[in-house]
Write a structure and sequence with these properties.
Shape: globular
CATH architecture of the largest domain: 3-Layer(aba) Sandwich
Structural class: alpha/beta
Order of helices and strands: EHHEHEHEHEHEEEEEHEHEHHEEHEHHEH
Strand content: 5-15%
CATH superfamily of the largest domain: Type I PLP-dependent aspartate aminotransferase-like (Major domain)
Helix content: 25-40%
Strand order of the largest sheet: 2-10-9-6-5-3-4
Oligomer: single chain
Radius of gyration: 22 Å
CATH class of the largest domain: Alpha Beta
Largest sheet: 7 strands, mixed
Number of helices: 14
Length: about 400
Amino acid sequence: MGQKIIPYGRQNITQQDIDVVIETLQSDYLTQGPKILEFENAFARYIGSKYAVAVANGTAALHLNALALGVKSGDKVITTPITFAASANCVRYCGGEVVFADIDPETYLLDINAVRALLEASPKGTYQGIIPVDFAGRAANLEAFRALADEFGCWIIQDSCHSPGGSFVDSKDVRQNCGNGQFADLAIFSFHPVKHIASGEGGMVTTNDEALYKKLLKLRTHGIVKSDDLYTNSIAFAGGEDMYPLWYMEMQDLGFNYRLTDFQAALGLSQLKRADEGIIRRREIAYTYFEAFKNKSFVKGQSGVIEGHAYHLYILEVEDRLELYNYLRSKSIFAQIHYIPCHLMPYYRQFGWKEGDMPQAENYYKHCISLPMFPTLTAEEQEFVITTINEFYV
C-alpha cells in the first residue's frame, strides 16, 4: 500500500467516457459543433440556471465574467485570499484593483462581516463587485451576499469551481444550488482533472441574465457575431443584395478564443451523468475522515460533515504541518496545501499587501492540509491515510 501513490485528487475515466470521446473524434466536428450546446444545456439543467456557456477553462470563465461585467481600470473588487489565484487575477486582467477581505475561520469562506466592514468604510460606489468562492466545496451563503451587494451597488461573481452539486439553504428554507443564478450575476465552474467533472481542461459560466449570456457568447469567440439581427454594417457592404450573405460575420468587440472543443464537451457530458454518484461518494469519504479525527488532540480544526458540501477537498488543520506533509509523502500519500494566501503572493505584495493584513487566512495557511479526496479512493486507501496520520502523532 505504501508504495502506491495516493494523490489528493484524481480523475475517474471510464470506458463510457473513452467511447464518447472516440465517437466525437470520428464525427464531423472537433470544435464549434453540436456537443458544445448539448453540454451547456445539460449543465444548466443540472445546476438549475437559465443559461450556461462552455469555455476553455475556469480561468477563462472568470476573465470573461469580468469583461462582461465591464471591469476596468480603477474598479475595486473584493475577494478572499484563500483561493486559487485566478479568482483574483481576473480583475487584474481587466485593469481593476483586487481588495482582499479575511476569511471566517470556521468555514474558511470569505467573511461577509469583513466584506461589510470594507464597504462601510468607504463611500458607496467605491467598490464595484464581490467574488465569493465556494472553497473546498462548501457553499457560501449567496443570499446574504446578494443583500449586501445590493445595498452597496455591487455585482457578484460566484466562484463555484469547487462546488458543482453543492448547495445552501436560504432564508425561506429552500435549498439553492451553487451557480443557479438566483443570487449571483454570474457563476463559474472548472473541469480540471481533479474537479468533480473532468474534461481535461474546460470551464462553464452560468447565469440567469440574458444580456450577460449574449455578451459571453460574443466574447468567447473573438468578439465575433454571426447573426443578421446583430450586424451593424450594411447588407451592401457585406456583399449581399437583399440579405446578408452566408459567409458574413462581424467582429464587434475585442474578444478571445476561449472555446471548448467538442471532444472535451463529450467527455464532460459523460462525466456529468455520474456527478451525483461522485458527490455521494465524496460525502461518504468526508464522514469517514470526520469520525476518524473528530476527537484527536492534534487536530486544530476540520471541515466537518456539512449538508450541501460538495467536498472537492477535505481539510485538516494540524500542528507540525510540514513534518506531517513530509511524512505522508514518505509513505506515498501526496497530500496538498490549499492555498497559499493570495495577498502574500509576490505579485500582490507589490500593491502593498503584507503579512498581518489577513490574520485568519494567514493562521489557516500555517495549519491546513488537504487529504486525499476523490470518488475512486478505496476504503483500504483511506484507512491507510488515517492510520498513517495517527501513527505520525503517536
